[in-house]
Amino acid sequence: MQQHATIAEASFTRDADLGPARRPRGRPIHRMLVSFSAAYFVGALVTDIAYWQMLDVMWERFSIWLITAGLIMAGLAIVAYVIDLASRRRIDRPAWPRATGYAIAVLLALTNAFVHSRDGYTAVVPTGLTLSALVVIVLALTALVAGSLTNRHRLGV
Amino acid sequence: MIQIVKDARSAKLPRLAALLVAGLGLAGCNNEGGDPKMQIGANPQLPALQQYLMPPIRIAKVVGWGKETPAVPEGLQVHALANGFQHPRSLYVLPNGDVLVVESNGPKAPIYRPKDIITGWVQSFAGAKAKDANRITLLRDTNGDGIPDLRTVFLDHLNSPFGVALIGHNLYVANTDAIVRYPYQEGQTSITAAGTKLTDLPGGPIDHHWTKALLAGPDGSKLYVGVGSNSNIGENGIGAEYERAAIWEVDVASGAHRIYANGVRNPTGLAWEPETGKLWAIANERDEIGPDLVPDYLTSVKDGGFYGWPYSYYGQHLDPRIKPQRPDLVATAIAPDYSLSSHVAPLGLAMYTGTGLPANYRGGAFVGEHGSWNRTPLNGYKVVFVPFSGGKPSGPAQDVVTGFLDANDHARGRPVGLAVDKNGALLIADDVGNTVWRVSGSAPKPAS
Fold first, then answer.
1. pTM of the model as a whole
2. Which of B115, B231, B320 has its CB closest to that of A117?
3. What is the ipTM of this complex?
4. N or C: which terminus of chain B has fewer CB atoms within 10 Å of its end residue's CB?
5. Does B448 map to a domain?
6. How far does the CA of residue A20 sit from the closest CA of chain B (Å)?
């Protein structure tokens, strides 16, 4: 009995001391989810262009599912990001331009999901296609700006 | 009854969803429809079309009839012929006066887009997801008091049936995917014989407009079939529309068919105009381009005629949602004869030749309007009468059977198929109230 209590106490103490310091500081999970959603949104632009050129409803259906999948991933990314923000002591400064750009892209994609839910040709051309392209442009610009900020930050340090 | 109560309770959900969406600023233009009276008759006013981020959805919460009955004007009376049906959609009266009630619902819709999930969910609140009975029930009123004294299952294990037509001793039933012929002897109360397939009809896997209206030709050698489109506006691809949005002429001897007329989006009811003997149809027009577009209609059907769908509506009004366009076809598009106003969803047509109702109804058309689900304010939810003279509509549509909506715009029932019984009374299938209503002339008042 005595022995057990000692062991429990010892392991508890060790965890309390070493836990946080030992946790690996890897890539946060929201980054991975953001990459997924960006890939889906880029896919939707490709299938939109395919529909515009070929007028086969198959491509139109691909687009709306890709946009929907992208939005689901974006939703999960936002949840993960909020958890990260809440649990981390320090936020990297360049995270804010990236977060803002991403939020704009997601809102555009959400609007696009509604446009793509129309029936027939006007679900894609011209508004849906334009929005798909805008989402990709905003994502690309965000990556570019955020990337350069991160680099400057690192160089500055 | 349980179904109705459940519907009533859960109908709060879509309103909540609509509020959430509106809160996100995604409701788009939330404009109201104009006065439907401006769109009754030939040459309806057609506003410019709009496209939405979120098309308006306005469904009537189902509350059931309770002790209420529909309302009829002076000179008519109404009572429930029978109730307790499972989604009765259409009616047919046999020569001996037996009434066939087709209890049916559409096949399960496939999910091609996220929107299909939402649509299915919304429809379930409008009472459209009732269990599919797939059968025909027979009602017999031997003593003519308007209360049936025999009720039997006439035909069972059908596949989303809708149209019924009797030619001699052959009873034809239009399932959603085929016309089937059954031997019938007068007075028979149930058919157990296996049917013989006359011809396939466009059915699944996509079967968007599933009802197949059926009408026997005047000489009994042909059947006319209303085959609805496979989409709202071609969003399932033009390949899915092969021989759809059309009225077929089927040869009863061989089962061969030809397209009698096409470009009719969803011809849900067919009838012969009594004076001229011409074919007339009611049709449900396209959605999602505004509360006042496109008006549903009643029209004569010309052999070989093209009525616009999907390329255009009311003649040459182009629909931008269809690509590539077909200017060659649009040039020939016939504008329908008579607009019933937008989104009323006409699902029942009966040309009245009986004598049981007051004389002013003779020769005109009754139309059962199932009611709108995508328009504010609600439109339809009643049976109207279109007077005819010289083989053509001769005046505005009159409300005949109302009260399907209560004062709060909740649905007690929704009218669908119509028929005229052997005593000249008008029968109405109500697929939400699960009742068959009988409208007869009221007892003559003593002369003053």
1. 0.88
2. B115
3. 0.86
4. C
5. no
6. 40
